[in-house]
Prior knowledge:
Keywords: Endoplasmic reticulum, Hydrolase, Membrane, Metal-binding, Metalloprotease, Protease, Transmembrane, Transmembrane helix, Zinc
Number of helices: 16
Structural class: mainly alpha
Strand order of the largest sheet: 1-2-4-3
Strand content: under 5%
Oligomer: single chain
EC number: 3.4.24.84
Binding site for Zn(2+): 284, 288, 362
Amino acid sequence: MAFPYLEAVIGFMILMYIFESYLDVRQHAAHKLPTLPKPLVGVISQEKFEKSRSYSLDKSYFHFVHEFVTIVMDSSILYFRILPWFWKRSGEFLVYLGLNAENEIFHTLSFLAGVMVWSQITDLPFSLYSTFVIEARHGFNKQTMWLFFRDMIKGIALSIVIGPPIVAAIIVIVQKGGPYLAIYLWGFMLILSLVMMTIYPVLIAPLFNKFTQLPQGELRLKIENLASSLKFPLKKLFVVDGSTRSSHSNAYMYGFFKNKRIVLYDTLIQQCKNDEEIVAVIAHELGHWKLNHTMYSFIAVQILTFLQFGGYTLVRNSKDLFQSFGFDTQPVLIGLIIFQHTVIPLQHLVSFGLNLVSRAFEFQADAFAKKLGYAEPLRAGLVKLQEENLSAMNTDPWYSAYHYSHPPLVERLAAIDASDKKTE
């Protein structure tokens, strides 16, 4: 008797849903707490705390509904064999168009087109409610309905342009990869990721946001001096019009080798009281670069990607696995989808481990900024970002440990306030 792969996958999905719902309930209870955590009393205003509490509870209620609908829909799609049914229908659609359904590339693209339409339809109500009800209610949403749908249409158009060549390449690699399939797939994905990281900020991101050079002035001079003191090869310093869509704020850097760029959200500049707070946030980001966190993270992702492709090569020819999910044939894309479902337990463990590493990196980057003399402005900047983004003030330790890639504000402030000896 063949192993019941499908039933095992659905069973684990439901178990993980129950476990994560338990964590969500714990976090929801933390959101309901009527008082600030002691370390934040006198640091965060009561008005901001009440607004944060209300925002967090609204998002939490929405999350419960969204996750319930998602698990019901995903488990139903697997249990009632909708995937193989849809695969057959996509082949019939090709025949209707006069195309060859035996061509796996055409068949796969037809299948993905249907999946994209389905996902857009099912995700749209949640996206609209999140953006135009929850985010708008709490003063974050700045985009119009036209801008929302324009972004969605641009995203679909990009998928239509970029997706088919990538899908076709993966199918050809799998069909002809032989014993070195994992290496070929990994190599292709490595090159693809490098290409996308290169063209995304230059060609794709500007389709959605406007990037302008940070004007000459004291802020620009301070950031350039900081970058120069650390020998950070800063080539361009941009401001992005994040305020056209949301009042949430952020900053990030990107680029390879000697071509680094820093991007500030205009909302970050508007919200911080002085330039020192913004520079302190940049010092934190440069700490990630100086401490090689970006490189370590990239290497970790590449190792995990290679291991995943190695696992895929071991199971891709398993007829029992495909038949358990309702497939008579063994298409490349379907094999990848099935494999992703079968390694869900490992994915959760890996995600938890990566979160632990990420949290450690955040503490180290904060300590780096502190050593540069930015302890007080960094502290003030983190508090300001917490207030203006209405981030959760009270967090459940279990939920935080499992989900958060960044430590809660209370823990970061405690680390910054600690003595230099203890921080080291």
